[in-house]
Structure formats: structure tokens, C-alpha cells
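TODO from last week: model ParA family protein.
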Amino acid sequence: MIVTISNQKGGVGKTTFAMAFANFLSLERGLTLTVFDYDYQKSFYTRWLRDSESLPEKEPLYEVINLVADAGRLVDTSEMLGNHDSSEIWLFDLAGTLDAAYLQLLKLTDAFVIPFEYSDLSTKSTAMFNAMLDECQFMGTRFYIKSRMDKGYRYPTQGTFDAYLKNAGVLIEAPLYKRNCMHKINTRTYPTDVKEATRETCIELISKMNTAFDTTF
């Protein structure tokens, strides 16, 4: 299965959730996966390397492969994707901007995991991302993650936007709230505070993915 964590706007917690979800799949579900950092900033890959130095006593939970060349050019993944075994879980972390290099990956993606916020900029960017997926006829199932929410705040556009997302794909109801613990997330552990902040979202996501794809992850 190819899972792509993406949206057209940066700053909505894509990489942070990608780390949490990868850790959940490895430690909570006992699954083997490979992560591909396809973001110009290389935040996931950089963190994974840094954790090798700062947490040497912890074995890597998964391999993270950097897909950004030294010159800042995105690596062509066509050949690699052609060799993908559908039984393998490949998790891609993409940049907040769309690049032509992503087209083959987006075409072959099984599950689009799309974190978003209820801000005006984020909802518009998410709608634009949906329109692009529709126009290009990318057939992967879309799963929308409510990210960086303020607990207790009533978002004026939430009801309308939720209805729109449910029509476009699968909305994950368990939100990700703004939590200080998420600033210290790493690629080697799934500590209690991070687990409390993300586990319900991850459980609902994997449950709805299992339903959509008739799998038992």
C-alpha cells in the first residue's frame, strides 16, 4: 500500500502527523513500513538521522529514505514505484507545494492522508488540492485529518467544510489538538503524552483504511 501524506499548504502538521502515524503503525500495530521523505525541507529524514545520534540505544522503527537530491531537486521515483509490492507499506511525506515530480506517485497512491486546519487559507488550499486530484483523476481514497485544533473553540465554517469533505472522501472525526508535546516528537519512541495526543486519530484512520481497502492492518 502506498500512503501519501500531503496537502497544498504547508504548516498544517503534515510531517508531525507522519511521524506519529509511522510510530503508531510500528509500535502499536507491529507493522513493517518504509518512510520516504519527499519534502524539500527534509524534516522527517533530518529528524531520523538526528535521532540516530541522540537516541543510540533505541533501534530504528523504520527506514527513512531521502528523495531530495543535494541540489534541491526531487528524485524521479518512477522506477522505484514500478517495483513496489502491494503488500509493503510505503509512507510518503510530501511538501506543501505541488511539483511535477509528484505526478507518478500521486497516480499510484492508494491512500491520501490530508491534514488540514479550519483557517480560511487551509480550507481553500485543501479545496484546491481536491480539485487537482479530481482533474488529474487520481483514484486514491482521501482521508482528511483535523489538525492543530484549539480545544473548546467553535470554528464557524466547520459544519459546512466537514460536509464538503465527507462528500469528497473520508473525514476522520477524532481531531489532533494543539499540544506542546508534539514539538518533541521523534522517530524512535511513542511516549505517553504523544500517544494521548494522536492515538485516537491513528486508530480511527487505520480502521477506516481497513474498511476502504478490505485490509487488516
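Done. Residues 117 and 123 are 7 Å apart (CA to CA).
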